[in-house]
Amino acid sequence: MSDVTFHNAIKKDQLDEDEAIQVIIEGKEVAIINLGGEFYAMDDICSHAYASMADGYLEGECLECPLHGAQFNVKTGKAETPPATVDLATYEVKIEGDDILVGLPNG
Amino acid sequence: MTADQTFVVIGAGQAGGWTAKTLRDEGFEGRIIMVGEENFPPHERPPLSKEVLLGDAEKDTCLLWPKDTLDEANIEMRLGVRVTEVTPDAHTITLDDGETVSWDKLMIATGGRATALPVDGADLEGVFTLRTIDDAEAIRAKLTSDATVLVIGAGWIGLEVAAAARKRGATAIVVELADRVCARALTPEMSQWIHDLHVRNGVDIRCGVSFDHFEGDGGLRRAIMADGSVIDCDIAVVGIGLTPNVELAAAAGLDVDNGIVVDERGQTSHPDIYAAGDNANHPNSLLGRRIRLESWENAQNQAICAAKAMLGGEDTYAEIPWFWSDQFDANIQMMGLPEDWNETVVRGDRNAGEFVEFYLKDGKLEGAAAINNPRDLRFTRRMMMSDKTFNASDLADPDVKLQKLLKG
Fold first, then answer.
1. What is the least distance, in Å, from the CA of A7 to any CA of chain B?
2. What pLDDT, on a 0 to 100 scale, did the predictor assign at position B394?
3. Among A41, A65, A94, B198, which lies 20 to 30 A Cα-Cα from B41?
4. Residues B145 and B254 sit within 8 Å (Cβ to Cβ)
5. Nearest CA in chain B to A52
């Protein structure tokens, strides 16, 4: 059995290129990011202070927190700039037709 | 090699903290000694006039990093200790416990202190300023529902204190000498919006009022205005600005002119001494002038740049200034320090309390201020960094995405 369960999150046409959106999956805030047509998912709450990363703008491969400007790489979740020092978790994304699915770890 | 060197950081605030951490992150292997006057590890101050004053968070929320991170970075802390002298020729500092500490390179991140009001009664019990964790905790203890809190000065600190006082059920009165709140930082329209916000929430704001002195019998009882009128109050918080702590640097013979004069790398007039944060006056190429900024982001990023310079780095620092405040349910943010513009564009709905004011000069974006729209405000920085011109009708239309305007 896989240790990841994929959840239906949004339709592809709900997310324009170079934008991010917050979805709640199993009570968890997840940001889905459309980076140049490729989709990525990571934790939506900034590791520095309480803010939705999906409200931020993309800067290259990084999503910038709207509150204090910390940047996280959307592919790896790495905290690339201060004030954040703790990385965000990233999640596997699967496309099935028009649906975007996000894989959350089980348990 | 740096392993046998000692770098000393004076100050354990935002700038001092980021200096020490960056030195380690960038591979410095020598000793890092941090001297902090306050008895608290590296910390930031924005929560002090917000969450901490409201009682929504304890002082630990101000810590820049957990203890483990600091232990790992092996930063030697000397807290609750004041530096009394910097001696550049000997490469030493003297502490108020008599100890002398040698350094190879020195960071002076002494920040500033709340400007004192030299009036009768300013030393009465119950008269406060707000700068430190101790200040915030002392004021918070007095914000009870039966208290009348008088705020002198309708700047950011004063308005945040008034908001916290009201949210804790106290009576809040604000007196301001100028004819409107935050007059130095905001347009008249934005001042009015914030004024109305406070009035809606029960704050008694009195602009154009000249405060004269305090009276009491050991404890504060009342404040007397220049026209003789009397305001009875239990506590007063004086928020009339910040005075940069430059005395150590001046006595050491460093160049000081509205702050410690540094170059774009954070170096002072002495090659082994650096300064960053609220006390440093730096040349800002994006603004085209020298400036001393009192901002959280400046203290962080200028310090990071200066720490790299202490290790021989050539990075330079210049940023478009960014500030924020939280009052009641409003998040207020400002980008840039516009001095001169000929068009103000409002995007969003003033009445709904979610909007941005853009300041344009011949189509170039000079700055912006936002209520409850940090997203658009933050993007304004990129628009300001571009050479593009923008037209008012696009900016005013919330359906036109700012990203599109920057790309198009």
1. 28
2. 96
3. A65
4. no
5. B375
Closest CA–CA distance from residue A21 to any residue of chain B (Å): 13
Interface touch B375/A56, C-beta < 8 Å? yes
Q: Enumerate the residues of chain B whose CB falls inside 8 A of the CB of residue A82.
A: 18, 300-301, 304
Q: What is the number of other CB atoms lying within 10 angstroms of the CB of residue B179?
A: 11
Boundaries of domain holding A38: 4-105
A-B Cβ pairs (cutoff 8 Å, strict): 28
Closest CA–CA distance from residue A55 to any residue of chain B (Å): 6
What CATH homologous superfamily does B329-407 map to?
Answer: FAD/NAD-linked reductase, C-terminal dimerisation domain (3.30.390.30)
How many angstroms separate the CA atoms of B386 and B318, rounded? 15
Give the right CATH number for B6-113+243-310 from 3.30.70.1350, 3.50.50.60, 2.40.160.10, 3.30.1030.10. 3.50.50.60
Task: Closest CB to B375: pick one of A66, A83, A85.
Answer: A66
Of the candidates B82, B22, B83, the residue with the CA atom closest to the CA atom of residue B302: B22
Contact A83 B382 (CB under 8 A): no
Q: H-helix or E-strand containing B87?
A: strand B83-87
- Count of domains in chain A? 1
- The secondary element (H helix, E strand) that includes residue B112 is strand B112-114
pTM (2 d.p.) = 0.94
- Sign, CA dihedral B138-B139-B145-B147, equals positive
Residue ranges matching CATH 3.50.50.60 in chain B: 6-113+243-310, 127-240
pLDDT along chain B (408 residues), means of 10: 90 98 97 97 96 92 92 95 98 97 98 97 97 97 97 98 98 98 95 98 98 96 98 98 98 98 98 98 96 97 98 97 95 94 96 97 96 92 93 95 86
CATH 3.20.20.60 is the classification of domain B127-240: no
With CA atoms as reference, the chain A residue closest to B378 would be A66
Minimum distance, in Å, between the CA of residue A72 and any CA atom of chain B: 16
How far, in Å, CA of A3 to CA of A105, rounded? 6
Token pair belonging to B369: 């201020």
pLDDT for residue B284: 97
**ipTM of the complex in this document:** 0.81
**Any idea what the CATH number is for the domain that residue A32 is in?**
2.102.10.10
Give per-residue pLDDT as tens, B259-309: 999 999 999 999 999 999 999 999 999 999 999 999 999 999 999 999 999
pLDDT 10s digits, B100-154 = 999 999 999 999 999 999 999 999 999 999 999 999 999 999 999 999 999 999 9
User: Terminus-to-terminus CA distance in chain A, angstroms?
Assistant: 13
